[in-house]
Amino acid sequence: MKALSIRAGSGALKQLQKEGLDEDKIAIIPAASGSAKWLALARLDAAILGHMFQRRTRPLHLIGSSIGAMRISYWARQDPIAALNTFEHIYVHATYGPEDTIQSITEKSLAMLDSILGDTGPDEILSDPVKRVHIMAVRGKGPTAISHPTLSIPGFALSFLANAIDRKTLKHFFHRTLFSDMRDEISFLPHLKQDLPTDVYALTAQNYKDVVMASGTIPRLIEPVMHIDGAGKGPFWDGGITDYHWDSPFIREDGQQREDLIFYPHFYETITPGWFDKHLKRIARNSPNHDRLLLLAPSADFVNSLPLGKIPER
User: What pLDDT digit, counting tens, does each position of 17-53 carry?
Assistant: First the structure.
């Protein structure tokens, strides 16, 4: 049984057939939302971190939302595998029960984040000589700008219905907010803005924990982040609402990026653009955004061999 599936867009496939995999050509690594599904990638991440990007000098851009924001955070630590193991242990042993409220879940999530990042984590991440971290959240707009997790439900329901008609209607309910390490030019930003309007703010040691918390603020379960240093007032919600699996136009066949690759260790062989799309079973197929994509995921045979025949979700 093959445990891994490798999929490549047409442009990436041609380049790989001609040159093989040159890791210096990898420009961007996305990390998807998906709560506990990230656990299916923990050992794969450890293998990649232990064998790739050891002598790299060119900037490597890591972009994540929700739980993906935590994954790219351990990727950019001084000892990424130790940080991964710490995150995995704390995450697996966290306890929640029927007695938990939105407030208590929020408090436990903040405590978990503090335990994982500690006092030095943000400074380590933002001083990595190669890796550049970018984290997506969304700012509530109109009916989703209500800060109360329960009272905001009608606004989210309305945005879900609008998204079922056209993904671009999300711009009327949310404003994409990308928090970025500003040490290098964000070359993919113009392509990203072609999809949905996107505001960019500096990711700093002072706002790092708030940004990660905002990116993972699941509506109805966690209180939104109401203010982020450098970005102003919220409420800020889960970045997976707009960018669940990152079907985004990071790289086009133009300019100097025509040979760059997107390397995507993912827990599925398919890509679902936004959080609401998973309920619609809307999967991006033959997307032009995938031309430069190299996707590495657990194979269908491997997933079928797991308990319940699926990637664990809880």
Answer: 999 999 999 999 999 999 899 999 999 999 999 999 9
Taking the C-alpha atoms of residue 94 and residue 3, their distance in angstroms, rounded to an integer, is 28
pLDDT tens digit sequence for 76-115: 999 999 999 999 999 999 888 889 899 999 999 999 999 9
Spatial distance between the Cα atoms of 155 and 224, rounded to a whole number of angstroms? 14
Tokens 């208590």, residue?
Answer: 104
Contact 298, 4 (CB under 8 A): yes
Q: Contacts for 14-20 with beta carbons within 8 Å, 24 or more apart?
A: 15/259, 15/261, 16/294
Q: Does pTM surpass 0.85? A: yes
List the one residue out of 313, 270, 294, 274 whose CA is nearest residue 29: 294
For 227, 265, 268, 270, 277, the CA distances from 310, given in Å and listed in that order, are 37, 17, 10, 14, 19
β-pairing verdict for 198-202 and 4-8: unpaired
- Pairing assessment for the beta strands 232-238 and 4-8 based on DSSP bridges: unpaired
